[in-house]
Write a structure and sequence with these properties.
Layout (H helix, E strand, L loop, with lengths): L20 H7 L28 H7 L20 H4 E10 L2 E8 L21 E6 L15 H12 L8 E7 L2 E7 L3 E2 H10 L8 H20 L2 E2 L8 E3 L5 E3 L6 E2 L7 H4 L11 H4 L8 H16 L21 H11 L22 H4 L9 H12 L13 H10 L10 H5 L2 H4 L31 E4 L2 E4 L25
Antiparallel strand pairs: 1-2, 2-3, 3-5, 4-5, 6-8, 7-10, 8-9, 11-12
Helix pairs in contact: 6-9, 9-13
Length: 497
């Protein structure tokens, strides 16, 4: 009697995995057909006068050749994990609209050492950042209405992606209708480092060697995302983590999404993406279709901010009206125009096709500075000249012409002419030392050779609940988080707004 096999077909045909074609031919089973004798009789039928089992489950259990792995006689699922059974909460880091972020360590059992959690690179993860997505409404009673789209995206992407320059997701725990994403912990982020240098009595610049390493690692992680058809759509200093060992980690994938053969224009799903100061001109001009080039513009803005210790295009965001119409960001476009000048059709052939092209002429009426722009080169020379760079342990003193050209190619108006992440990594700024002298690629440790010690991230220890028990808590302030800036669950606290 021929029997069916419930194993899934292999990639090469309809044959169950693990069964060779020769074995099937020897047994006389046709790979594309099933013997009628192998089909259980309908429930309640009587074959040959003998009574049959009245349930499909009973018939299934009697199948002699059914592999034991598919007989679900026991619960196949692992017991539910509870956040407080596995982690000790050190304290609270930050909060946002959809949740909170906590610092944690592995729970130490009463009779031994805490279990080791290994990073894909093989090193042990000592501390964790736990992002808690809370129910949509909290009050006297929790009202669970679902999971935000950004949380779903972040979970889906983080479980698939793995790269040394992406923040690593350790696990996801569902408990009491709350979702906990457990990430590796990062002690710093680029925004904290910028603030540290800006607040020094001497207002010292970020060393040139550190700049190169930060940008090289950032672009390495970004190239990995783009090669896997993912646009980040919210790159900014607060979302770029820095570990104590000097590794750059891209965080907060709440707005990231796949761009491979989208069913609809990306604009339809999220009409506003990227924090205003880092938003590319094609987005400001209302483009319905955009590419990973928007991430490269944001990288240019980040590089300029690392140089000057302040945002290069610090505009004010126009808010949406009651009809949820997306307004033209005239002020932000003007801030870009003050340095780069307004875009020209001769330099950006598709400029006229932008939905807000007609509004571009009004920018000069509100900002006279766009008619006499500073120019990127003059801006760069002024910043570098005022920073008073000093050589550190024989490392190059100040960013040179290669750094200027690198910035210029990132802040290119036309997205089709803007550098890609792959091209950026091959730019002379990284091939040389940033001052025209050939050298080895930047270090994977952005702190290498530096004596500066950056303060660790502030963690509040006031009482606060996570997973139903009181632990380290919330001070009420919103700080940059260890897994993705001032953003929780993809909801953005727009620094320019």
């Amino acid at each position: 009697m021929a029997t069916t096999n419930s194993n899934p077909p292999s990639a090469s045909g309809n044959m169950p995995a693990g069964v060779s074609a020769a074995s099937r031919r020897a047994s006389g089973v046709n790979a594309n057909s099933v013997s009628a004798a192998s089909v259980p009789a309908p429930v309640g039928s009587n074959a040959g006068g003998a009574s049959t089992k009245s349930t499909a489950q009973a018939a299934f259990e009697e199948a002699p050749d059914t592999p034991p792995l598919v007989k679900m006689n026991v619960n196949p699922y692992l017991p539910q994990r509870h956040i407080n059974d596995h982690y000790d909460i050190v304290g609270f880091i930050s909060s946002g609209t959809y949740g909170r972020v906590y610092k944690a360590v592995s729970k130490r059992p009463s009779n031994g050492s805490p279990p080791k959690v290994l990073h894909p690179s093989g090193r042990t993860i000592e501390a964790f950042a736990i992002k808690k997505f809370k129910p949509d409404k909290e009050g006297a009673e929790l009202q669970y209405t679902g999971i935000s789209q950004s949380a779903i995206r972040e979970m889906a992407l983080c479980t698939e992606l793995s790269h040394p320059n992406l923040i690593h997701l350790v696990e996801i725990i569902l408990e009491s209708k709350c979702i906990f994403m457990v990430f590796e912990y990062a002690e710093h982020d680029l925004l904290q480092i910028i603030h540290h240098h800006h607040s020094l009595n001497t207002r010292g610049p970020i060393p040139a060697s550190m700049l190169r390493s930060c940008m090289y690692q950032l672009l390495s992680g970004l190239l990995y995302l783009h090669q896997n058809w993912v646009i980040h759509r919210d790159l900014k200093p607060a979302n770029i983590m820095v570990t104590s060992s000097g590794s750059i980690k891209i965080g907060d994938l709440g707005l990231a999404r796949l761009f491979y053969k989208p069913l609809h224009p990306l604009y339809n799903g999220d009409k506003v993406v990227v924090t205003i100061w880092y938003r590319a001109p094609e987005l400001l001009l209302g483009s319905r279709h955009y590419t990973p080039a928007i991430d490269l513009w944001a990288c240019g803005c980040i590089f300029a901010e690392l140089l000057s210790l302040r945002p290069i295009f610090k505009g004010e965001e126009a808010k949406q009206d009651s009809k949820k119409a997306v307004p033209f960001q005239r002020n932000q476009m003007g801030k870009i125009g003050e340095i780069l000048g307004l875009p020209k059709k001769s330099e950006w052939p598709l400029l006229q096709s932008m939905p807000e092209f007609g509004s571009l002429g009004s920018v000069a009426n509100h900002n006279a500075g766009v008619s006499r722009p500073v120019g990127l080169e003059k801006w760069f020379r002024n910043i570098v000249g005022n920073n008073h760079y000093a050589a550190v342990n024989g490392l190059p003193a100040a960013p040179g012409n290669e750094a200027l050209d690198f910035l210029r190619e990132l802040l290119e108006y036309d997205p089709l002419k803007r550098m890609t992440a792959e091209q950026a990594l091959k730019h002379p700024y990284f091939v040389g030392d940033g001052s025209g002298v050939a050298t080895k690629p930047p270090s994977g440790n952005c702190f290498q050779g530096l004596e500066t010690k950056y303060p660790a991230r502030k963690v509040s220890t006031e009482a606060q609940e996570i997973g139903g028990t009181v632990t380290g808590g919330m001070s009420g302030s919103k700080r940059s988080a260890a897994v993705g800036g001032e953003d929780i669950g993809g909801v953005k606290k727009l620094r320019g707004g």
